[in-house]
Specification:
It is found in: Membrane. By secondary structure, the protein is mainly α. It has helices spanning about 45-75, 85-90, 95-125, 125-155. Helix 1 (about 45-75) crosses helix 3 (about 95-125). The longest helix has 29 residues, at about 45-75. The N and C termini lie far apart (about 85 Å). The chain binds protoporphyrin IX containing FE. Protoporphyrin IX containing FE (HEM) binds near residues 56, 59, 111 and 115.
Amino acid sequence: MATTETTASGIGPVEGASVHNVDNPAPLIEAPRKRTRKTPKSTRGNFEMYGWLFMRLSGIVLVVLVLGHLLIQLVLDGGVSKIGFAFVAGRWASPFWQVWDLLMLWLAMLHGANGLRTVINDYAERANTRLWLKGLLYTATVFTILLGTLVIFTFDPNIR
Ligand code: HEM
């Protein structure tokens, strides 16, 4: 049984501290991916780290964009009843609101899609299920981003 004695070095009780000694060294644990001549460098990229960072940064920007959007659409100037074709036409006449809505569209879609990618990776256990769910997710994401961008830039207030 491992000892739980307190040593004089100031280190508290360490379970199993006396199991390994000079005659019985700790087992050598091999690196999960060995460097070989073919792969002398790490084969992993930093994609997940940038994804993690993107979720935080896009989240901060989205707070401003989405709260501003809700305030303008639902609270100010008579609330939701003012929204109609003329209201949208008036706002998209300004490049400022075009860029605002474009940023909101791109960031929310990429943030939401990357979040769902994580959820799929976490919960779909079979490789085939992950493949199909992510295929569907990426198709819907690209479609929505392209269609929304097209609408923002080709909107015609004089349409009949
Ligand atoms: C309004 C401001 C928002 C903030 C501050 C925010 C923040 C975050 C953060 C920090 C994460 C990462 C959580 C983690 O890694 O554990 C996250 C995940 C996620 N976000 Fe957002 N987000 C916002 C808006 C949105 C919007 C508009 C959508 C949908 C279009 C969305 C969909 C998601 C999804 C699906 C996840 C993954 C959930 C998970 O991993 O469990 N978020 N959000």
